[in-house]
Please model this.
Amino acid sequence: MSIEISQLSKRYGATLAVDSVSVNFYEDDQVVALIGPSGGGKSTLLRLLGGLESPDSGKVILDGSAVPAEEEALRQFRMGNGFLFQSFNLFPHLSAIENISLPLVKVHGWAENDATDRAKEIADRFGLVEHLEKSPGQLSGGQQQRIALARAVAHKPGLLFLDEPTSALDPEMKAEVLDLIEELRLSGQRIVLSTHEMGFAKRSSDKVLFLSGGRNLESGQSAAVFENPQSKELRDFLAKVMKW
Ligand SMILES: Nc1ncnc2c1ncn2[C@@H]1O[C@H](COP(=O)(O)OP(=O)(O)O)[C@@H](O)[C@H]1O
Ligand SMILES: [Mg+2]
Model:
């Protein structure tokens, strides 16, 4: 994906959540991972890239076009992307299949039949067919997050944003969600994710960006960054998170 981020800043009160971040990603960077300590600015940067939040200053150029500022254009831009957050925010009163198909109808304007067909198709691919009539409360955390991921990609988003998609899950459930993300990657889906799964980031991302205190402290090819971190901050961070 081509993303040019220049001098991007976002403040919440006294906190500079994203502090003059500049970095470029290119066409053959299909998967970009944001890593760094809690509070480092990962979620804020993801929201800025996805148009869920407006910057105070700086700009983002995605595939040659600036992320729009005007409301209607921004709405269109958001609709073209997919989002998945840490906690499974499924609608509790809807069945799993409705959680996938209703947004296609209500947000994307699909016919109901097409939406249902698409929901079944993606559920089949994600191994979720037997759970489609259940409500979120009847599903495990891993199953809920797989439904949420199915919903995030049902409309075939150009870019998929994942914000710590596995951090609320038990280990074996983490693995089943990471397997699906890997499958999406292999199918060519472009993904920007924040994660604490360093093994996954190292293996499955093309580029990595280390954010701490809202700043880009280090970025580059994932293999190189993980094998040969340049900054003391990143060396300390990796030593801490990879210790156990
Ligand atoms: N909506 C918000 N209101 C106030 N402060 C926020 C808000 N969102 C994030 N922050 C602050 O911005 C900083 C960066 O947060 P965040 O982007 O969530 O980091 P990360 O995702 O890396 O943990 C933190 O200090 C956080 O408390
Ligand atoms: Mg976060």
The radius of gyration is 18 Å. Residues 42-43, 163-164, 194 surround magnesium ion (ligand 2) (CB under 6 Å).
